[in-house]
């Protein structure tokens, strides 16, 4: 009957070691619609078909692809997030190591003079003689038996925070891809606007010189010359403005890439020469957003907060620690490893807090409050992600319509300017009528460039809002539309 007692105790310890005080974790329901608003709905593929994290398919322009690869390699901000991931990885490894005993070896060698009638470790009376002591011990001290899951809860929390850190890195990586793409597109638009302003300046200056000659011949009034000079100077001011924008975009791109930008990777600035990004299909399922790294990070932190509740609850239960050692002790080094010199020891200690003035209750309440806060943060992250994606999807079709309409407007103004110029050269129309037609064309071209920029940046924003991409079959749709978007000449 007594033989059953050790087995019963071991079985009890085993069952207790499987105990966990973590509350059952339930992922909160996303407080969003299952479908996008009607304005962004349409025929679509499944979530599995629609999503792909590989950004290479989304970025069509090879120059921009290479630039993004350089940024992912050299950007200092992204390196900081990578270091944070390694720090979180080390924290998780440290939390996991607490589940195992720390085994060490201690050695001691001493020489001392003992008082009379004291027996030496090797046996016999010292008689005031000098004695040697040699000791070697292997074992572990204060190994906590995780009977109530405190250490396992802490390990789970550290693991979830490690996952959140990895997701934060992916968020930063996705943001960097989007920022490089947006800055490169802005540089392209600024360069295009600068080219338009320089062309306008040259045209205004040319007709201004013709008007000045006409004034010298007495065919034009002086006020006409001043008005022509004013329009020329206006174009010069715009040139300076766009030069500043180009320089600012170049500086921003240099910081994002982490090195000087190779000239071969810069955009040409030709409006409508190609699309730098692939098109986005309509009617993408809202379930794509669950792949967003910021949502995954928020959900991982929620799981960590849930595990923290279990760790806080374990303070209500006793802790048990085990100490064990095996070694040898001898006064003669040659006999240190002999059987008579060997010894062992083992001890089990336990402790339980009885009165703490409400400290444990406060810890548990605080853990519950942090969980509620993380749950709210998770829901807010999902809602914000849904809003960002819905806004980008809603703007997508409107921007396509605007760009197409503005392109037709540019073509109309080009024809109006061409006819007005011919009438002016034939003496059938005034200078100001021709310059007014040219100014209208310039403004329409400016607007077209700005709308093209807004449309492509909206594509980038939608790419980020959906967490990274969509299906391979939808990735290179932009390349087939290059020919129809060639820039009309002035």
UniProtKB/TrEMBL annotation:
The keyword Repeat does not apply. Keywords: Cell outer membrane, Lipoprotein, Membrane, Palmitate, Transmembrane, Transmembrane beta strand. One of its GO terms (molecular function) is efflux transmembrane transporter activity. It is a lipid-anchor. Belongs to the outer membrane factor (OMF) (TC 1.B.17) family. GO terms for cellular component: cell outer membrane. It holds the Pfam family OEP. This is Efflux transporter outer membrane subunit. It is found in: Cell outer membrane.
